[in-house]
């Protein structure tokens, strides 16, 4: 009786916003279904909602100046290429000769040349180095002389510039086994460099990095960047003092004599980097009647260069050089039936909308939709994976905007004439991009950094694609709240007299916490597995799995004594998943988006099989199986037809690549996805 | 009034007379002097250095009076108003290439300046008035030279070096603006200070397109005065120099078919500047052009000449300059009036040579156009500074970083020092002076020094150090160091860590996203004195420029300007800020009003009276509300209302759908 006035007081105090919240909680099921469907539809709609790209920074002015590369530059590049290829044929020691030859040519053009010698440090798993720069440790124990490589760096000092900023051109090549394509890319860089030494409009210095990629393209660039930005002065003596160089330097060549005075071994620098272009030449593509340009932009953890850089490159390639610009796409999706069907649906909807109001420009042709979504999937996957798609990724770690431009000629160039034409095109493209970036007074900041590409000239900005994610995760807190209030109510009936009834959520929270702790331990296990010598990938994977299971049972025995109410457990699990997804969305949005797509349905649907109906529990089972990271990996592989058969080894390599590249996706999988999945199984098998 | 008018007439008359009779001008002006000189020097990398040197002198006021005929009034007033003892202002575009243009000779030491504007001044005022004088001076200079030197007024932009920058007392202020763009608008007022402007004399060569098309451009104004000393001897000396590095287009066609790239391009004054000299400035006491040939070049030429001796056995003189007639490695289009050679060379084997050309007897119909023609290819290198200095930033990200100063020995310094003192442990003294703006918060205690890759204890290397840490928004950080480096070291580096600060939104410059500059550091080597002692065969040389070169001065070099990216707010989206602010305000005021307006009891009464009414919407609303409220405390009764509300809401949804369908159909068939 005493409670009535109190409740009467409470009654009108509810604000509308609380009432809405309560209403949503009451209708959590409907809300979840609507939101999830809307989220998936929004995801499918992304290619339709993509906008045309535009150059946002006015200072760039792409294509405003006519290209200046002359025949002289190109014939010089031709001669340079001939020397390179003849050297390769002639000499056994091309690995030493080619950097020297490049240095000689750079110096002759008027660049300031220096060698950058580095040692190959293979990517290793450092469990505590996520999100930190991996250079703090200095104990590279086994320095073998064999793993030396030499980058050649040429710098043009801008005649009237103040030398505060620089533009970097990178040409990865393998001096041990120089391919024709690499020679071509060096030739393109040569022709651009040759022009840039003569022009008077340079405001930023130009660095041409001929990256010795015998130990990987990424490694050479990363090593140079590391020495550029964070040189370790302590290493200097070691690297130059020991006998490593002596052995390699014994056979002096006549090239060395010529350029001896001009090339320095100490790293030359040229200010803060404004942008970097990695130039590559691919094998002739079979499709299309034009030379094509592939743009790769994804850096580690889904970071992208400023969209303006891509815009400038694609604008100049299309309008200046008549290249066909492409962005990577999932080829197998191009003729998938269901995508076509969805495309048709959107097209008809768009048609109807247009017939209703001609102002509504909604809907795109099926072909465009399918291509857009194939590109989008690839873009999303590459970002979500968190592994850079090329050596440009090394630049992003130092906040430098960089992309890889891979030019693939229409047919292979055997004739001199065609080669010259190709060099002119490539050189002009590089010249144009350099000139645009050179115009830039400030660093790239005008355009988007968070975007997905649906084609080379269409993009989806973060404002659009986050809607899908928000719709997907929105049901999670609502469901958690509704489950919690349900559990509380049922408890109110059963055990009214018990004290501390509001602290009941602590027990399931403990379970959830333990499982997440387990996830953290699982993520660290590979470090110890690597200490086991001479093990095969399969056995490593099995050791990992069995250790994880063992740990799980050990941890289970800690918590197992007390049975918890499944609704409360699910509520806490769902909240944990929500928090994890939201945190991940800050770090790498694409991972969070894909993760939400996998995790949210499982979390929403899961119910103990004793409580749920047969169909429901079967569905749950399917979802749970797909939800397992390994299973999801194979399903995605088979669905999108990525090459190679499915095997455990491949999965191991995939995971290995994740942690080798310090991808936050690995952390996400181990510390959010896996624990939630285990909890879902726990709920599924809950003995009510 | 009448007096001043008569004086003006007199002045005009004097000027007229002086322009008529050029020979006796200097004597007539009794003390006021103006000289113009130009030094040309071929550089190893196929470029040509041209160094204009104008000097105006006025005797002290107490003996000469206030009225001047030649000396610029603006400078005289400036000196008197702010009581300046010494001042130097430089405007520079481009970077001096210490490696290939030399870093040791007097011209490089005094004319290689950091990009942008650099200003320092010594005042003859009590210490507490120095800052005020400096502020006024910056404003005056800013007006005088059409540059934003007034930005040096703020206390965050300038500093008062203790001892390292120069040996003068605490009345010196130093500031630099690395970002100042230099162009012809700065040159014109500078030229206005010359008595002939650019209408006659050597300054006629300053064709704007060609001098701004060079690789380096530095205009400097240096003035010294002893006006305020009790015994004034010299008065005010204003030294104006313009140093340009130009790339000559090859004059002769032979270069194209001589296969070697090593033949230097020949040049003439008209090919370099696109103009010729019509004759001297009538007011100038002397007007000379010099061509300097560096010692190592002389040496190398002698070598090449000796090599070809068999081909032409005639020439094998020991004295270098006698070998340079028309048959040598190079030739002049005009025979030099005099030849001077260096007497105290650091090089044992090469003596730098100076060829002098007087332009007194040239005039409009017979312009002076000096040509320099190479006959044989020759390579040489300039005398480099003792150490190659480079400064760079380390680290990435917007939080912290480090400034690194790397010093590398050049072969030259090695040889010099080894030759000098072999027995005892020799040291190389290096002075470092660095100013860092306050938003780069340098932690001076993190100073680390590595010599040849080995970390060294600070006390072993640093002889003297004085640091004044920056104060936020008040003063920049200043670091002055004296390093003692071992002579036999290959490389040394000095690192300082810093944190990047945050600026207030209105402290950002318009192009904030470019980053922020750290001005150049000054590295000087007090152990080395740059001095070129020239001697003519018969007489001493009466040239201010040559006597400047003969002065002892410390070898100086400047490091690069650094660009630090700082965190910047998103300026391009004020809309977002407005939106968010408006939302916050709306929420705040809305809830405040709501709370103030609400009276609980009255509301309840109102609700109850509402319940009695039976509007359909009200019914729906009340049911909806009751459901929402009723649930937590009346579980059994919660189910029927919810079902009923569901029923009703589904009915409403049905209605809405119907209306929508009608509208849709209407549009569809109508359109």
Explain how this protein is built.
The complex is a heterodimer of chains A (688) and B (671). With 688 residues, chain A is α/β, with parallel strands linked by helices. Chain A has 3 domains: 16-48 and 465-492 and 500-684, no CATH class; 58-127 and 147-328 and 389-456, Aminopeptidase (3-Layer(aba) Sandwich); 330-386, no CATH class. Helix content of chain A is 56%, strand content 10%. Chain A contains 25 helices and 11 strands. Residues 1-10, 131-143 and 236-257 of chain A have low confidence and may be disordered. Chain B has 2 domains: 18-374, no CATH class; 387-564, Immunoglobulin-like (Sandwich). Chain B has 671 residues and is of the alpha+beta class. In chain B, a hairpin with a 2-residue loop joins strand 18 and strand 19. A 12-stranded mixed beta sheet of chain B has the order 5-6-4-3-7-8-2-1-10-13-12-25, sandwiched between helices. In chain B, strands 15-16-22-18-19 form a 5-stranded antiparallel beta sheet. In chain B, strands 20-21-17-24-26 form a 5-stranded antiparallel beta sheet. In chain B, helix 18 packs across helix 19. Chain B starts with a helix and ends with a helix. The chains are: A alpha/beta (688), B alpha+beta (671). At the A-B interface, helix 1, helix 2, helix 8 and helix 12 of A face strand 15, strand 16, strand 22, strand 27 and helix 17 of B. Chain B: It holds the Pfam family Gpi16. Chain B: The chain crosses the membrane at residues 575-596, 652-669. Chain B: InterPro entries: PIG-T. Chain B: One of its GO terms (biological process) is attachment of GPI anchor to protein.
């Amino acid at each position: 009786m005493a409670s009535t006035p109190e409740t009467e007081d409470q009654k009108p105090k509810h604000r509308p916003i609380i009432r809405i919240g309560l209403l949503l909680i009451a209708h959590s099921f409907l809300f979840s279904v609507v939101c999830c469907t809307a989220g998936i539809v929004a995801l499918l709609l992304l290619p339709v909602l993509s906008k045309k790209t535009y150059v946002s920074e006015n200072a760039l002015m792409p294509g405003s100046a006519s290209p200046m590369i002359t025949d002289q530059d190109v014939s010089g590049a031709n001669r340079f290429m001939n020397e390179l290829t003849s050297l390769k044929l002639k000499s056994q020691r091309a690995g030493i000769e080619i950097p020297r030859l490049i240095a000689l040519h750079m110096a002759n053009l008027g660049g300031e040349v220096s060698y950058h010698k580095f040692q190959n440090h293979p990517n290793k798993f450092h469990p505590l180095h996520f999100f930190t720069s991996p250079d703090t440790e200095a104990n590279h124990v086994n320095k073998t002389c064999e793993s030396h490589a030499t980058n050649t760096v040429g710098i043009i000092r801008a005649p009237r510039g103040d030398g505060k900023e620089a533009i970097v051109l990178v040409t990865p090549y393998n001096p041990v086994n120089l391919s024709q394509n690499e020679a071509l890319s060096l030739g393109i860089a040569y022709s651009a460099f040759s022009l840039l030494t003569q022009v008077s409009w340079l405001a930023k210095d130009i660095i041409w990095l001929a990256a010795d990629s015998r130990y990987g393209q990424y490694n050479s660039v990363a090593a140079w960047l590391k020495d550029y930005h964070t040189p370790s002065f302590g290493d200097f003596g070691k690297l130059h003092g020991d006998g490593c160089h002596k052995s390699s330097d014994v056979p002096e060549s006549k090239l060395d004599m010529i350029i001896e005075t001009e090339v320095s071994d100490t790293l030359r620098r040229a200010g803060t980097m404004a942008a970097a272009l990695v130039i590559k030449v691919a094998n002739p593509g079979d499709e299309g009647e034009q030379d094509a340009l592939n743009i790769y932009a994804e850096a580690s953890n889904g970071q992208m260069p400023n969209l303006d850089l891509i815009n400038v490159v694609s604008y100049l390639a299309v309008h200046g050089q008549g290249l066909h610009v492409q962005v990577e796409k999932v080829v197998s999706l191009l003729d998938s039936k269901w995508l076509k069907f969805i495309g048709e649906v959107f097209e008809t909807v768009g048609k109807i909308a247009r017939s209703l109001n001609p102002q509504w420009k909604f809907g795109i042709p099926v072909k465009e939709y399918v291509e857009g979504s194939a590109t989008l999937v690839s873009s999303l996957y590459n970002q979500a994976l968190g592994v850079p798609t090329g050596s440009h990724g090394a630049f992003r770690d130092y906040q430098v905007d960089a992309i890889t431009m891979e030019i693939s000629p229409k047919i292979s160039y055997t004739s001199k004439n065609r080669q010259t034409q190709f060099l002119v095109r490539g050189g002009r493209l590089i010249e144009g991009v350099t000139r645009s970036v050179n115009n830039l007074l400030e660093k790239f900041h005008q355009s988007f950094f968070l975007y997905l590409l649906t084609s080379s000239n269409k993009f989806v900005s973060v404002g659009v694609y986050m809607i899908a994610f928000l719709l997907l995760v929105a049901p999670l807190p609502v469901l958690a709240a509704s489950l919690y209030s349900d559990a509380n109510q049922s408890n109110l009936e059963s055990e009214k007299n018990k004290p501390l009834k509001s602290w009941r959520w602590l027990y399931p929270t403990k379970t959830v916490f333990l499982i997440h702790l387990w996830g953290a331990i699982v993520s660290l296990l590979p470090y110890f597995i690597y200490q086991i010598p001479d093990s095969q990938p399969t056995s490593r994977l099995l050791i990992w799995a069995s250790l994880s299971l063992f740990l799980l049972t050990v941890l289970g025995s800690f918590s197992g004594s007390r049975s918890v109410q499944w609704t409360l457990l699910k509520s806490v699990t769902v909240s944990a998943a929500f928090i994890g997804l939201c945190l991940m969305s800050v770090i790498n949005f694409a991972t969070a988006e894909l993760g939400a797509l996998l995790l949210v349905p499982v979390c929403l649907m899961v119910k103990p099989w004793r409580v749920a109906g047969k169909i429901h529990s079967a569905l749950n089972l399917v979802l749970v199986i797909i939800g397992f990271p390994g299973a999801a990996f194979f399903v995605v592989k088979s669905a999108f037809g990525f090459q190679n058969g499915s095997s455990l080894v491949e999965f191991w390599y995939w995971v290995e690549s994740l942690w080798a590249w310090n991808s936050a996706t690995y952390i996400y999988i181990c510390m959010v996805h896996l624990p939630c999945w285990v909890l879902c199984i726990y709920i599924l098998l809950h003995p009510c | 009034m009448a007096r001043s008018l008569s004086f003006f007439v007199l002045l005009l008359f004097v000027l007229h007379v002086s322009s008529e009779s050029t020979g006796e001008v200097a004597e007539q002006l009794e003390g006021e002097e103006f000289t113009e000189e130009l030094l040309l020097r071929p550089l190893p990398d196929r470029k040509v250095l041209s160094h204009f040197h104008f000097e105006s002198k006025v005797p002290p006021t107490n003996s000469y009076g206030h009225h001047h005929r030649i000396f610029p009034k603006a400078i005289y007033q400036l000196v008197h108003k702010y009581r300046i003892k010494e001042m130097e202002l430089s405007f520079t575009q481009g970077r001096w290439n210490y490696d290939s243009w030399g870093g040791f000779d007097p011209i490089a030491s005094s004319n290689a300046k950091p990009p942008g504007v650099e200003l320092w001044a010594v005042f003859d005022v009590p210490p507490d008035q120095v800052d005020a004088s400096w502020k006024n001076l910056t404003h005056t200079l800013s007006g005088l030279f059409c540059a934003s030197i007034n930005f040096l007024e703020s206390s965050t932009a300038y500093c008062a070096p203790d001892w390292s920058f120069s040996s003068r007392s605490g009345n010196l202020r130093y500031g630099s603006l690395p970002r100042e763009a230099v162009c012809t608008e700065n040159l014109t007022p500078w030229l206005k200070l010359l008595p002939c402007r650019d209408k006659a004399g050597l300054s006629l060569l300053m064709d704007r397109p060609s001098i701004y098309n060079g690789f380096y451009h530095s205009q400097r104004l240096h003035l010294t005065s002893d006006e305020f000393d009790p015994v004034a001897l010299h008065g005010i000396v204003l030294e104006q120099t313009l140093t340009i590095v130009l790339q000559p287009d090859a004059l002769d066609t032979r270069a194209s078919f001589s296969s070697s790239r090593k033949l230097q391009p020949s040049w003439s004054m008209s090919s370099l500047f696109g103009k010729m000299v019509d004759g001297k400035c009538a007011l100038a006491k002397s007007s000379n052009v010099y061509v300097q040939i560096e010692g190592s070049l002389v040496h190398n030429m002698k070598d090449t000449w000796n090599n070809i001796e068999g081909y032409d056995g005639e020439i094998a003189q020991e004295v270098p300059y006698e070998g340079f007639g028309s048959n040598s490695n190079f030739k002049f289009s005009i025979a030099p009036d005099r030849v001077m050679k260096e007497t105290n060379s650091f090089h044992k084997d090469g003596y730098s040579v100076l060829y002098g050309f007087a332009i007194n007897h040239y005039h409009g119909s017979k312009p002076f156009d000096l040509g320099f023609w190479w006959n044989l290819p020759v390579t040489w290198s300039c005398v480099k500074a003792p150490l190659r200095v480079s400064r760079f930033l380390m680290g990435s990200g917007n939080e912290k970083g480090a400034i690194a100063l790397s010093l590398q020995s050049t072969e030259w310094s090695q040889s010099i020092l080894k030759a000098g003192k072999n027995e005892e442990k020799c040291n190389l003294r290096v002075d470092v002076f660095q100013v860092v703006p306050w938003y780069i918060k340098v932690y001076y205690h993190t100073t680390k020094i590595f010599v040849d890759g080995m970390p060294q204890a600070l006390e072993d290397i640093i002889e003297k150090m004085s640091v004044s840490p920056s104060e936020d928004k008040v003063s920049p950080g200043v670091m002055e160091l004296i390093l003692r480096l071992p002579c036999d070291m290959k490389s040394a580096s000095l690192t300082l860590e810093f944190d990047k600060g945050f600026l207030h939104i209105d402290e950002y410059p318009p192009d904030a996203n470019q980053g922020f500059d750290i001005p150049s550091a000054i590295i000087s080597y007090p152990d080395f004195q740059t001095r070129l002692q020239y001697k003519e065969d018969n007489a001493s040389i009466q040239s201010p420029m040559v006597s400047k070169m003969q002065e002892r001065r410390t070898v100086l070099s400047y490091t690069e300007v650094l660009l630090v990216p700082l965190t910047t707010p998103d300026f391009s989206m004020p809309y977002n800020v407005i939106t968010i602010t408006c939302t916050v305000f709306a929420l705040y005021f809305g809830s405040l009003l709501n709370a103030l307006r609400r009276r609980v009891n009255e509301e309840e009464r109102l609700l109850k009276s509402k319940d009695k009414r039976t509007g359909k919407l009200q019914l729906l609303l009340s049911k909806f509300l009751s459901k929402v409220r009723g649930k937590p405390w009346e579980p059994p009764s919660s189910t029927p209302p919810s079902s009923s509300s569901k029923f009703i809401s589904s009915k409403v949804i049905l209605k809405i759908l119907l209306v929508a369908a009608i509208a849709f159909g209407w549009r569809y068939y109508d359109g």
